[in-house]
Model the fold of this input.
Amino acid sequence: MSGAQARVSQLKNQLGVFGSGVGPGQLLKGEVTIITGAGNGIGKMAAIIAGAHGAHVVVSDLDPQKTQETVDTIKNNGGSAIGVPGDVTAKDFGETVVKATIDAYGKINHIVNNAGFTADKMLHTMSDDIWNLILDVHCTAPFRIVRAAAPHLRLKDPEKHENRCIINISSTSGIHGNAGQINYSAAKAAVTGMTKTICKELGPFNVRCNCIAYGSIDTRLTQAKEDGASITVIGQKIALGIPASMRANPQANNDVPLRRQGNAEEAAAAIVMLLSPLSSYISGHTLEVTGGRGI
Done:
């Protein structure tokens, strides 16, 4: 058994017993779940866990190869998935991913707007292009996806009101702000307002909408910038990560009661929790997944 397979097996056991009568593979059985940014980190683990719990997963990532790797992992563990790679900032991406989903599975239960990245600069050195790029990926792209999916979510027949939920990914930068991240902080603050509005507009159709504000999670965005990780969007190469000197600070997690970063599996588990029927009366909420930081 490979490391990834062992991890999925462990997660199925850990996450499968949430309540009476709910066993492994049952939380999202038969529910169609779109997850963007699912080629790496939190999005990838959310896709794998959702697939392990019986969801039909629509995997999307900017990188076609990583999209397919996530699809293959889900299928190799007995799940159901298709890949729809693409740039979420493209004007037609919302229509593209929704059409592919309906063509494959005939319905949409869940959307996880996870795709995103950072492009940090102090406000006095930030260009309009970098400002707009971050708002496009974190605000405009999720808006377009939900707008394209709306006809398949606004179902008037109560008998078709299955478990359905939209999750938008925010950050504690959107709650507290963060030096060097005026674009990211503004975008993530906007995500919480979008979430509450979607909650109110789609709630009458039994569609929940929640937001997750992550603290420090061990992903490409928090690893050492000197490692050279980057992403290329609309012809712009964006360096990912934070300076190694900040990561090496022995006091970096002193304000986290758990005294550590979270990992991708823990972060993804919060997504699956909110997607599941066990969160059926939670809507319009921003869940802070921070290890206790900021309380």
Remarks:
- The radius of gyration is 18 Å.
- Residues 3-221+262-289 form a domain with the Rossmann fold fold (CATH 3.40.50.720).
- Residues 143 and 194 are 8 Å apart (CA to CA).
- The chain has one domain: 3-221+262-289.
